[in-house]
Design brief:
Strand content: 15-25%
Distance between the termini: 8 Å
Radius of gyration: 17 Å
CATH superfamily: Aldolase class I
CATH class: Alpha Beta
CATH topology: TIM Barrel
Largest sheet: 8 strands, parallel, barrel
Order of helices and strands: EHHEHEHEHHEHEHEHEH
Length: 257
Amino acid sequence: MRRLLIGSSLKMYFGRARQIEWTREVARICAAHPAVQEGLVEPFVIPTFPSIPDVAPIAAEGRMLVGAQDLHWEDAGAFTGEVSAPELVEHGVRLAEIGHAERRAMFGETDETVARKVAAAMRHGIAPVLCIGEVDEGAPDAAAAACIRQLEASLALAREAGSTGRLVVAYEPVWAIGAPAPAGDDHIRAVGGALRAHLADDPALDAQVIYGGSAGPGLLPRIADGVDGMFLGRFAHDPAAFGRILDEAHELAEASR
């Protein structure tokens, strides 16, 4: 079975102490879990900027990657309040969440700024966790077409620069973010499958497609044939829920043997 990428962005839900506590609990679960020990799952956590130095060594104990919730497209300069890719690399950051629908809606991010950030991340060996998704609920084929357009716009500058490396595409339909339940299983599999097929023949990218948008325990077994993992939010605030999803991943692997 292919390795699954499973992790969570903590957004701004927790303060420093709670992020440390959450990561310690999840890292303990990961360190002992056969899904991680056997290389079936690559877990990750994306804390707030100030908590990255505290979270990183704890996460390492559970073989968890650490990400950042954003980055700036320039390497240095007069950009008050921003954080650069080179500095994130110094802190051991391996992933960077880019283009989330909340940042587009609240902070005016556009396809152009997202493309600049993706290029900056890849330039410094940080894998973008590129968030894409259709705004309104509709047919899977229309959703897939919209997502592929958004994906290509976001990769335009990285492609121009000849960038290579890891890319994580987080499919998050905007209408499912914060909803009581995720998108329908068939919808997720169809759109995830279309994105994977679109990226499959690109030799420059080591690409994975994960699903986010009210994702939590119980979903992975229903969508695993269409995605490469899950991007968790509030339904993983209880570390035990993270553990249950690892259980599901291990059960899938056992069933495929």
